[in-house]
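User: Teach me something about this protein's shape.
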Amino acid sequence: MMRMLSLFALVTLAFTSCIEKDFDTPPVEDNSVEINATHTVADLKDYFISGEFSEITDELLVDAIVVADDEGGNFYKKLVLQDETGGIEFLLNRTDLYTTYKEGREIGIQAQGLYISDYNGVIQLGGAPTTDNNGNLRLGQLDDALIEDYLLLGSQVGLPEANEVSINALGPSDVSTLVRLCDVQFTSSDTTGQLADAVAQQTLNKTLEDCDFNTILVRTSGYADVATTDVPNGAGCVTAVYGVFRDDKQLFIRTNDDLELDGTRCGGGGSGGGGGQPGTVTLSIEQVRGLFNGSATNLPTGQGIQGVVISDQNSGSTTGRNMIVQQDGWGIIVRFDDFHNFNLGDEVFLDVSGVELSEFNGGLQLNNVGLSKAVLVSANQAPAPKVLTIDEITSNFERYEGTLVTIKAATLTADDNDWAFTTTLNDGTGSLAIFTYAQSTFANDAPPTDTVDVTGYLNEFNSPQLIIRTLADVVVSGGSSGGGGGGGGGGGALTSLNEDFQSNNNFDPVSASGWMNTTNVNNGRTWQAREFDSNIYAQATAFNDSAPNVDAWLVTPKLDFAAGLQISFETATAFHVHQGLEVLVSTDYVGSGDPSTATWTPLSGATIADASTGDNNWVPSGDVSLAGYSGEGFVAFRYTGAGSGNTSTFRVDNVVVSTL
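Assistant: First, the predicted structure itself:
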């Protein structure tokens, strides 16, 4: 344990090695002490070891300036401290820190006995490590009672001058320091709202761009004073604390004074208009496809594409993170980093600078594209499909992948007399699979038995397939659209299921064939895929959620209860404070829309993890009979909680349905 020096000793002690400061120091105030530093922030950060929580065992006295406090609400229980050599976050278990440690105040850090680690790339100082509600080890906040033992109060010297830097030039040495970016603006798609959601107290990211279309996130807490600030629509300069979250660059503003954005926007507005974006060269989709050399590659900077959306997420025929765009007869999959709101027929410009071009199960895609990279140019721009035979398609599939086609005079063969999953199309020249997600609005409809003309876009998922968007894409040859006799009960219900969620990526929303992952709370959390020790599972939690409530539903595909089924699964908890997981059964849910509007009854006989089973222990449910339910229906894993207190974490894995 470090030896604490008395205030008198600290005032009078003269160290032989002092650190020069660039900041003018006014006369010492009555309640301040002179800080004769022995080390710098850079020296302090030298104790950081990646992946570890390192205790500082040496006697260090570091002199730094508070460049961000908690007064504005965008920083909570932390101070950001900076000297000439860099910056660091200090986690402190106290609110209203600004009343003592205000921005511009000189602070002495007696570091012996503190711990140093990082949070997703930001080096932090704090107390002993602790376990969070997700079961992860985190750096602890320094106890309130100990703060004055480790922090010495120096003079109010004022803020250092922010380092003026470009977005691309920001680097590790700038993290947790004041920076100033000029000739920047918020992307046009972000200028219609406020910096954060102060009503739901939800933290939001807005995207700042420079005139060369380089971007950085501006992250604002829903509790911050600036949350209700309208996003400025002009260009100029922004002063902020720079941070990172893994590979994302982030800015944290403190007050509205940090935003000086009342000038003319780059390019007079830069909203697309069919001519690309400032600082980008628009490539054709054909050129982009030609850049793929068989392995994942990142596209050069300054590149963009423009095309028309030929997929339809609103019908559920594709996922909300994917869309297919086509231009001049060439198409490509675009996978965003979040759910988008582009509609069928929207013409979109995409900045693809640095974006990964890769294949996923054979389908060529632009992967993990930031939503801020996409700009709506115009709407209702539907390209005409190319009429092809199945033989022409399969003989030259790489050419037609991602494009809209029509196949005429064909017949349909459905596996279970509905559209769900695979329907085989045959036009006499060959066969082609039509794939339909079980959550599609038309999945339960019966395909027509007549000869049909079918329009859809070509996709590859290990083998060629056609995706129809709605039943309007299926027209009886010489007649009208076909689709059978309505949804709800026409087959497609499963008698077996084995889902281990291993096909998901860590931190992505859970996605599995036929499953629905949804919430009936606006902007609420859904189930998330999480990974530990190479095992991926579904997880739901309200921990650290700023929204009033969490109501997350993970619903199985439709099950054929009449076949005599049983179900088993595993559940686990982390930091159990409330029983937030229910397993429910419904026979009147239609498989789409808000599940809470249907009738659900608790699954009887299943063992579910609770407070008595302990954290992080997988609990088998046992084989639970579903024979008491008639007809067809669904099983749902429903998590409810609230960030204000009901913050238990629940996990689900290895869901198996079989016949008795």
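Now, about its shape. The CA atoms of residues 133 and 575 lie 5 Å apart. The domain at 386-476 is CATH 2.40.50.140 (OB fold (Dihydrolipoamide Acetyltransferase, E2P)). If you'd like, I can walk through any region in more detail.
User: That's plenty for now, thanks!
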